[in-house]
Amino acid sequence: MNVVALSILVFDLTGSSLRLGLVAAANALPTILFNLFGGVLADRMETRLLLRITALATTAMLATLAVLIATDAVELWQVFVLAALSGVVIGIDNPTRQAYFPSLVPPRATKSAVNLNGAMMASASVVMPTIGGILIAAFGTSTGFFVAAAGYGLMTISTWLLPARKPVVDEARNVFREFSQGVSFIARTRIFAVIIGLNFASMFFVFGYIQILPAFVSEFDGGDRQVGFLFSAAGIGALSGIIAAGRIRPGRWLGWTILGAAALFSALIFTAAQAPHYAIVLALVAIGHFGNGMFMITSMTALQLRVPDELRGRVMGIYAINQSLAILGGLWAGTMGDVISVRWGVALGPVVVLSLIAIIALTQRQVTGLRDDVDERLTGKRFA
Fold first, then answer.
1. Into which CATH architecture does domain 2-383 fall?
2. What are the CA-CA distances from residue 82 to residues 9, 68, 186, 213, 382 (Å)?
3. Average model confidence (pLDDT) for the chain?
């Protein structure tokens, strides 16, 4: 709901795909910075407290923006400031969640936990964008932010019901040294370096088109409702991909499954960018995000099963940057949209990622030979 409302608000204020990308960048850059050290906080502090603080802060920011819109006092600079502050909060929240939820289940249930976590997020992205588009079209953009604020308020309350996850590092240790340990683990572990790198590229160059959807939909003379429908088509595809990822047993084909799913996402979004009709775009986006849902779950499961618990917050904090890059990718798509055309702003990124996938498939045997060893906790030494 928040993403839909924000994109519609910025496009209503500016009518510019570049401005959509700039607001996305204002949110993503502080998120990336704080993702790096948010993982350190997740390993050294009580995670429930961190989640409570971030949920409460987000509630306050969304409610503030809703009031500004409802009173006709909103200006673009205020949106930029709140987007940047939200980025700081998200940068702490994302790695905290990544570190927290695997601690709730034994290793043998990690794959199911990852699938369930992803399915809940994807389910929300199916239902709420359509509702959001309809509500915003009927009652105005402030409604979307009020509903989003209420949702985060409920999340704040829920943190009092969560079990504890004890800190795994000594608070007296140097923050930069702790962070460097996570970076060092990824750098020396080929599978982590390649899979996380591919996640980064896919989210920045392909998924970033989501941030300029109002401009893209305007190519088909669509409005707020059509923006909501397209968000929901992406959510339906992602949910289907997540469900499929939970049911398949790729065995020794896990690496190829990861690469194939990423390639499907890029290829279908490229095709959607060139489609002549909105209805065709809906179908192609749904199929493309099926690939992305499968890619995200299979790759995250592979990493969660192999990261040492004492490094989980830091390593998964770095991995969580991919969500920020999905937002920052709106700057790429918006810039290309202004310089060339909105359609090519969406289409160029997938070409980059398809080229990267081809290089990985030809050169990275450790990735293509990756197996679905669910019960084995592998470490960096095994893959060095």
1. Up-down Bundle (1.20)
2. 13, 11, 32, 21, 44
3. 83
